[in-house]
């Protein structure tokens, strides 16, 4: 009978273990509400801290302490994670089988576990958000030589931000490269509408909350400043070069010299958005932009649809921005549509999954379609949307004006007429069809799309 005691000892432990696991699923709704309440408390306190910081900066020459900036950055990061997690959790709560249990118990369990952990993180962050001092006096040399210290929030232009679901890991990846002294130029590339500009905006915003060593952050949308004078004028306004001085610079070379004079000896970050073909690394110096190196510690981060262009601009690190995986795509779409619409009919969440799948994880498509469906509570409207996206996607509101142009530009940017013909040839294959590369090459040769003795 000696074996009985160990068995009896194991039984209550297994019971406790099972109860804890079931609780993650059974109490998911309550825990989501607890997380929402905790996040609201943290957001309110964050706003109070920001207001007190702004009052301190306005009253006298001071700078935000590193502890406060680090805390504000953590709050912003966790807020994005909480919003996405609550949306995922709400979808599980709404999809109940027999009115009591979520249909996918494994997913509901994982989300419940994440919710519990995230709630603890939010509460801990709130407890750590009480500071004896929020700002500190500027060093005397900064007060006399400049209006703002390196890394201060005032130096960063603020842009309206889209939802940044799925970009957190990319932001961290880019920031790691920014802190690497061996990396001066970083290229972000991907198809049109995948979220490159949103990622760059998010990185730009990080300079207002994180600790950094840079004196200025300059944003230029290269596709809108294709002329030398347009590009230089954007940079000079950021550097606050007066109109009198600028007018004395009679030509492009003189203006480039003035920009270079002000940027030399400083650490700057140049954010170049939407770089198009024909823009090369050598053009930066002719515009007055010193190239990054270990000595000056400067950075250039750019977005483009062409990986090839990353080479032309001398990117030491290339980061591909890709479409969202299914769970994050559904989260972004749900956030755009809104809970009121999703809860207005029990069938709409199922249709939302179908619509999301039709967008193939492309953020621009998810945001465009989600914005249209944000006012549609009728089940019939959602059925029509699904049918239209499956049969005539170009007729869907916003798709022709917003989604197709960047995709067409990506198609037009293919390197040769042959590449474009091959791309169109692929469209005859059924959706989700597995295509053998060798078979595809043979077919293209047979159609006369590929020629030569060694097409492979």
TrEMBL record:
Record bears the keyword Cell membrane: no
Record bears the keyword Manganese: no
Please indicate which superkingdom the organism of origin belongs to.
Eukaryota
* InterPro entries referenced in this protein's UniProt entry, alphabetically: Apaf_helical, NB-ARC, P-loop_NTPase, Plant_NBS-LRR, WH-like_DNA-bd_sf
What biological process terms from GO does the record include? defense response
Q: Which GO terms describe its molecular function?
A: ADP binding; ATP binding
> Which ranges carry the NB-ARC domain?
170-339
- Coiled-coil stretches noted in the UniProt entry, renumbered to this chain: 25-52
Q: State the UniProt keywords alphabetically.
A: ATP-binding, Coiled coil, Leucine-rich repeat, Nucleotide-binding, Plant defense, Repeat
Name under which the protein is recorded: NB-ARC domain-containing protein
| Organism of derivation | Gossypium barbadense (Sea Island cotton)
């Amino acid at each position: 009978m000696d074996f009985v005691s160990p068995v009896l000892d194991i039984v209550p432990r297994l019971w406790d273990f099972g109860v804890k696991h079931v609780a993650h699923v059974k109490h998911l709704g309550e825990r989501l509400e607890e997380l929402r309440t905790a996040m609201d408390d943290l957001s309110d306190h964050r706003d109070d801290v920001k207001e007190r910081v702004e009052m301190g900066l306005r009253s006298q020459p001071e700078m935000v302490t590193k502890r406060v900036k680090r805390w504000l950055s953590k709050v912003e990061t966790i807020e994005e994670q909480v919003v996405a997690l609550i949306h995922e959790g709400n979808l599980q709560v709404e999809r109940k089988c027999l009115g009591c249990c979520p249909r996918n118990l494994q997913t509901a369990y994982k989300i419940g576990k994440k919710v519990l952990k995230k709630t603890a993180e939010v509460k801990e962050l709130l407890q750590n958000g009480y500071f004896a001092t929020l700002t500190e006096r500027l060093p005397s040399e900064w007060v006399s030589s400049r209006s703002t210290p390196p890394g201060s929030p005032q130096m960063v232009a603020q842009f309206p931000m889209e939802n940044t679901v799925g970009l957190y890991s990319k932001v961290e990846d880019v920031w790691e490269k920014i802190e690497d002294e061996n990396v001066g130029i970083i290229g972000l590339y991907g198809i049109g509408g995948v979220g490159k500009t949103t990622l760059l905006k998010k990185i730009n915003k990080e300079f207002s909350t994180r600790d950094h060593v840079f004196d200025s952050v300059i944003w230029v949308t290269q596709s809108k400043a294709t002329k030398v004078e347009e590009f230089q004028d954007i940079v000079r306004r950021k550097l606050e070069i007066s109109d009198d001085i600028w007018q004395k610079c009679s030509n492009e070379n003189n203006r480039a010299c003035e920009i270079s004079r002000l940027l030399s000896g400083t650490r700057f970050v140049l954010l170049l958005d939407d770089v198009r073909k024909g823009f090369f690394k050598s053009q930066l110096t002719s515009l007055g932009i010193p190239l990054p190196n270990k000595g000056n510690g400067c950075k250039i981060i750019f977005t483009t649809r062409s990986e090839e262009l990353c080479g032309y601009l001398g990117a030491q690190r290339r980061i591909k921005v890709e479409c969202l995986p299914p769970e994050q795509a559904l989260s972004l779409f749900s956030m755009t549509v809104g809970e009121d619409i999703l809860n207005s009919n029990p069938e709409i969440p199922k249709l939302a999954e179908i619509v999301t799948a039709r967008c193939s994880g492309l953020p621009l498509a998810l945001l465009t379609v989600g914005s249209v469906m944000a006012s549609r509570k009728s089940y019939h409207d959602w059925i029509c949307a699904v049918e239209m996206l499956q049969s005539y996607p170009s007729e869907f509101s916003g798709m022709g004006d917003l989604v197709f142009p960047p995709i067409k530009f990506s198609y037009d940017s293919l390197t040769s007429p042959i590449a474009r013909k091959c791309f169109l040839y692929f469209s005859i294959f059924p959706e989700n069809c597995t295509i053998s590369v060798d078979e595809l090459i043979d077919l293209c040769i047979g159609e006369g799309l590929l020629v030569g003795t060694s097409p492979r």
